[in-house]
Amino acid sequence: MTGIQATERLEKDLPMRPGKVERREFEYIRHGTQSLIASFDVATGQIVQPTCSDTRTEVDFALHVRRTIETDPQVKKWHLIMDCLNTHQSESLVLLVAQIEGLNIDLGVKGEYGILKSMKSRATFLSNPAHRIVFHYTPLHSSWLNQIEILFSILVRKLLKRASFVSQDDLKNRILQFIDYFNQTMAKPFQWTYKGKVLAL
After folding, report:
1. Domain parsing of the chain, residue ranges
2. CA angle, corner 87, sides to 112 and 186, nearest 5?
3. For residue 197, which phi and psi values (nearest 5 degrees)?
4. Low-confidence stretches of the chain (pLDDT beneath 70)
5. Is residue 126 within 8 Å of 94, Cβ to Cβ?
6. Which of 20, 116, 150, 199 gives the lowest tally of CB atoms within 10 Å of its CB?
7. If DSSP codes are grouped into helix, strand and coil, which group holds residue 35?
8. 3-class DSSP assignment, residue 148
């Protein structure tokens, strides 16, 4: 989740009164943004290895994947579902998977040849079902199929929508505190309610 704004409201919200909802001041100070990289365990409903930082580079994401894999070395197979963002099909991820899989092969050169040549060739390698770590990519414009998007929606509604943050560190700390709270009190597997029927004719 990128571009989470640390906005501080200049004035306090106007409280509720009979017949009036709580109202927000529209002026704010923008203290910058944070990016949240997290994984959602579909079996437990828990958020795994959340990282809040200033950047979301391919190195940041590969480090997140490494840390996630290291949470349980006994797992025989990892299935990671994500959208088609460039950092999810990066050179860093290919190198990480090749290292973990113990592959001693020529991966090629980014932009020139081999597995590293293009995003498509890298995605093909990363989604190879023979690997211990298998990446599954949602179709274009269908990232809503990834259950972490439900979590991001909860985060926005419960914390970010009406909050005021005095700094990027304040934003980061409150996001991570919310995730701890979510894992302890709200985490449960999401149940799909859509039955595959046509929504409109």
Report:
1. 1-55+147-193
2. 160
3. -80, 155
4. 199-201
5. yes
6. 199
7. strand
8. helix
